[in-house]
Amino acid sequence: MAKRFDGSQQALDLNNIRVDPDLVSQNIEVTLNRRNSMLAVIKIIEENIPELICLNLSNNRLYRLDDLADIVNKVPNLKILNLSHNELKTERELDKLKGLKLVELSLEGNPLCGHYKIQADYVRLVFSAIYCQKNTIHKYTNAKCRTSNHALLPYLAVTVLTSVLLQTQASYFCSEEIKNIILCFLQQYYSIYDSGDRQPLLQAYHDGAAFSLSIPFTLQNPSNLGEYQKDSRNIRRMKDDPTTRFRLIKHTRLNVVAFLNELPKTQHDIASLIVDVNTYTATLLAFTVSGVFKEIDGKSRDSFRAFSRVFIAVPAGNAGLCIVNDELFVRNATTEEIRRAFVAPAPTPSSSPVPTLSAPQQEMLAAFSQKSGMNLEWSQKCLQDNDWDFDRAAQIFTGLKAQGKIPDVAFVK
Amino acid sequence: MQTRKSNPITKRRKQFGSQFLRTQIFGWRSVKCTFSSMASTVDFRTLVDQSCRYSDEFVNIYYDCIDKRRRNLTRLYLDKATLVWNGNAVTGRDALSEFFESLPSSEFQVQSLDCQPVHEQATQGQTTLLVVTAGSVKFDGNKQRYFNQNFLLTAQASPNSDQPVWKIASDCFRFQDWAN
Description:
Distance between the termini of chain B: 47 Å
Organism (chain B): Cyprinus carpio carpio
Helix content of chain A: 25-40%
Largest interface: A-B, 74 and 63 residues
Protein name (chain B): Nuclear transport factor 2-like export factor 2
Strand content of chain B: 25-35%
Shape of chain A: extended
Structural class of chain B: alpha+beta
Order of helices and strands of chain B: HHHEEHEHEEE
Number of strands of chain A: 13
Oligomer: heterodimer
Helix content of chain B: 40-55%
Largest sheet of chain B: 6 strands, mixed
Keywords (chain B): Nucleus, Protein transport, Transport
Strand content of chain A: 15-25%
Domain NTF2 (chain B): 54-175
Pfam family, one (chain B): NTF2
């Protein structure tokens, strides 16, 4: 076995081991499709090379993977597994490898390859069967899967597709130094941005800075993006109106900051910000920030928005940044995003001290909470806002709910 | 510094029509500044108009290419361009080539487009545009998803015409629901 092990790659090649001349000459039968053999091999791996990364089990007539299941626990670092040219008939066999965090998996030359006419289905099934970490699979190498019944199916694009698409990461900082510069900047930037007076942001912007904002354009009425709509710049919709197109781009830091100060007051979920560093040179750092914020005053108070914002900055002072271009895209946050936002403290509807309720009010509150499904905090807010008029509050509630304006946290009990 | 002066300016601006007053204000400023800054304020309007025209053209070409002529897509990128795709960095023509080849076929719908000329201090005089798009895309075998994307395009002199050739210096793409 030793000669089949490559220490530099932590790779063990057991391809067609049954016919290995050394083993045959010593009359040692290693038929991996038999339970005893497989278990023995796993034991040897576990005892000698448990950090194994790459295992080749091709050409071993494997028709089931039950006996291989132990490998999940005993060889946890396994990343590359070659099961090609075996006798696996169904992708459900791969269920037994649940828990392995594979980066590369080869399945070509197995009967299971031929079953699916629709490439996408096959890929989805294989993928879900493995339950591998979605973020770590880089590619499947079963590029070609031939059977007598089906034409050559271009699996490569399809299989890699799923893995590439599912391969999402959190922030991308190209270096530790840049990460620190950006995080420091964002910390300062958003603490001013959320403070209620954005005037101090003047220091962050270059004299010749430019800013514009955009929102999603759909044919349905996007009116619930409130304040952002009138200043949204979608140049495709302004081809005949270069004046507006120009007006909506704020130029010079005075204009930029004056405009930012007019936007609704916000509270950003700093912990959830995601940053992608687009590119950098000696004179330019471009990065994209995405995240979620809540509006804390105005007509759209308590609305959750999601945003994607591109900053282009030049270096300034001590590892600081000076913004030259700033583009903000705002949309409504999805239910999922709202659920995940501001995880630490549960948002309360009002910051003023809660007055003690009279008995009839408490009764009304309980009834309202039960009927609306909202928790007590939010039910109380609704009732208070409507002067404890049950019917009116109910009407308002139903109306808002129909418009989807009530955040999901209101229903969390 | 200049903070106090901004108030009278913005107040004045609000009283009159924008176009006329704009030249007035910048005219006033230019008295105090050198000719070069006056030139640059006139240029800004031109830069903005140009950036709108070029980015509109570019976006049409890019998304048509990625949907229908995927093999030609890398030609739109600079040799050393970077793509950050849902947090994964892909750098250089070869890696981009491999990446786009492995990406399944797509159907993009760009729903919004915004652009800005990038300040010359950042680009050392190399004319650059920031292009920001959003919309939905359906990759083969997957459900339709919303995305945000932004590009930095830089102008390269073309041997064939006096119009510049725009190439992608950087590309940043993320699904809006990337975390799911």
